[in-house]
Amino acid sequence: MSDMTRRDMLQSAAILAAAGMLPATAKAGDNKKLKILIAGAHPDDPESSSGGTMALYADAGHEVVALYLTRGEAGIRGKSHEEAAKIRSAEAEASCKILGARPVFLTQIDGATEINTGRYDEAWKVIKDERPDILITHWPIDSHRDHRVISMLMYDAWLHAKKKFELFYFEVEAGQQTQHFAPTHYVDITTTEDRKRKACYAHPSQDAEKGFYVLHDEMNRFRGQEAGVDHAEAFIRHSQSSRGLL
Ligand SMILES: [Zn+2]
Q: What is the domain range of residue 9?
């Protein structure tokens, strides 16, 4: 396939159409309005991994939810957990506004996340209540323990739901945090990269501009090269995901 044909295909396919999840020209008005839920461990994980895709879905009229396992309690040096949680929750809310998403918070504590039957139940309850058509969460092989925890909790909820929605995995700080990530799907985020950047910059407590966004910008350019576009986000689709929604 030539580069041009490939690029045309990616642009027209827009979102995750290649996955067979969404018709290429889909707008919520023409087809079923979908709910896409992006589950991250900390404020900034959904945005930095999938912000361009979130904006594309929101712009097409679909419902986008950012689920945060914690409020980033341990993420600001010199601040108490309570102070950091307040600051970082507000940053997540501002960030979601830029992307057209609705934030939802679970009740775990940054740096001290856990997996037990109570936590499985809590995660299942939110998925049962939200009923997403598409769930995207951390790839489980990751150097950050909290990332591994939300990945396991979401995988368990997907099994509990009898795999009746699409399960995808995203990457964050590839190589340093997410590891052994071999994408199955790419989303061209060239038209929404500026909003992704703004949404990440809406986390000033995390020094996005000089810190984590630099890494994600490199990652998105590299994935873009793989996909034949300027900027792309990459995902792994679980092969047993239900396609019942189409
Ligand atoms: Zn994180």
A: 3-18+34-237
